[in-house]
Design goal:
The protein is an alpha/beta fold. The two termini are 15 Å apart. The mean pLDDT is 92. Helix 12 links the parallel strand 11 (279-282) and strand 12 (303-306). 46% of the residues are buried. Helix 4 packs across helix 5 (101-114), helix 9 (214-227) packs across helix 13 and helix 12 (291-298) packs across helix 14. The strands form 2 sheets. A 7-stranded parallel sheet has the order 3-2-1-4-5-6-7, sandwiched between helices. Strands 10-9-8-11-12-13 form a 6-stranded parallel sheet, sandwiched between helices. It has helices spanning 2-7, 19-35, 52-55, 74-91, 101-114, 126-130, 134-146, 158-166, 214-227, 249-257, 271-276, 291-298, 329-340, 344-361, 364-377, and strands at 11-15, 39-43, 60-62, 95-99, 118-122, 152-155, 175-177, 200-205, 231-236, 262-263, 279-282, 303-306, 321-324.
Amino acid sequence: MIFRKLVQNKRIVIVANSTWNIYNFRLNIIEKLLNEGSELFVLAPLDEYISYKERFPKVKHIPLINLDRDHTSPLKDFRLISELKSIYQKIKPDLVISYTHKPNIFGGIAAKLSGTKSIGVVTGLGYAFLNNGWIKKLTTQLYKFSNRFHKKIIFENEDDLDYFISNNICRKENGVAVNGCGVDTEIYVPHPNGHKKEKTVFTFIGRLLYDKGIVEYIEAAKSIKRQRKDAEFWIVGELDDGNPSMIDESQLLQWIEEGHVIYHGFVKDVKPLIAKSDCIVLPSYREGMPRIILEGMSMAKPVITTNTAGCRQTVPENKNGYLVEVKDVGSLSDAMNDFLDLSYNQRHQMGAEGREIAIDKFNSKYVAEELYEIISSV
């Protein structure tokens, strides 16, 4: 109760690398902070997802000019620090909460320069840490420098927290882990696989990136289709032009033309396609906490994902699906074949288990409450 009183009437700023990020992942904490009486500002580059303001008209959105998640220009980074510092000095917030790498790093520096308290939220390590090279080394050093200025560093899984601590990127007493950003279990409701179909539908939903495991998904699909005729493979998602891990457009076209997959393109509302799926598959190399897996679980769909950071936490003891090895087509194919051999009742039970885990562990309201207590303590 003391924490709640401390946060009332406080001016809080949330910074993210896109309004898309706000719309898809941060609405639960926005709602929580507003309900607790905070005055809220959101700083993010403007895009079509500014429609979130219709739901939260009290939020003051300030478009960022110099935040571009894909560029590698030091000059633009210095401009971002200056832009954020200027905004912080004008708003005079009680606390800044930053999400994703660049807001965490450069927002932390700007907060220090403006004398503002800040929290950094690491939503996943992603491409910058998956590939050994200059980007990983530079990002590591920048985090080591900027993390000194945050009061807390929040991680979306324990593995990422342990990685930062063991590599001296953040101090143990400053780090804390939560269960991702959560899933709204009242919106993503069960849709059991009650209809007998000629083919079982496996669905990959996400950006078409190598490190999401899209190639392994296709190779497993090819392997299974050579053996049996009772499976169909869907892909839902977009090409991410600015990401160095994006697959070639020609490769996607070849997969479609050869009939390995059915490509549904990018859709804003994935619920209807999850509902028509029998199993949600994400063979990612590493995640913060895979939102699409949580959404599938909440809709009572069995899942197949990898035994890696973020992903492994969603499938305890194979109750609601299968964990497979990273970059291992054979392991993924075996899991798909095992799923195909399950009875309807076994699949239904898997989905029901996933739904219960989503409610008990990953409910967006619980996660928002957990985040709120951390924010309040700062």
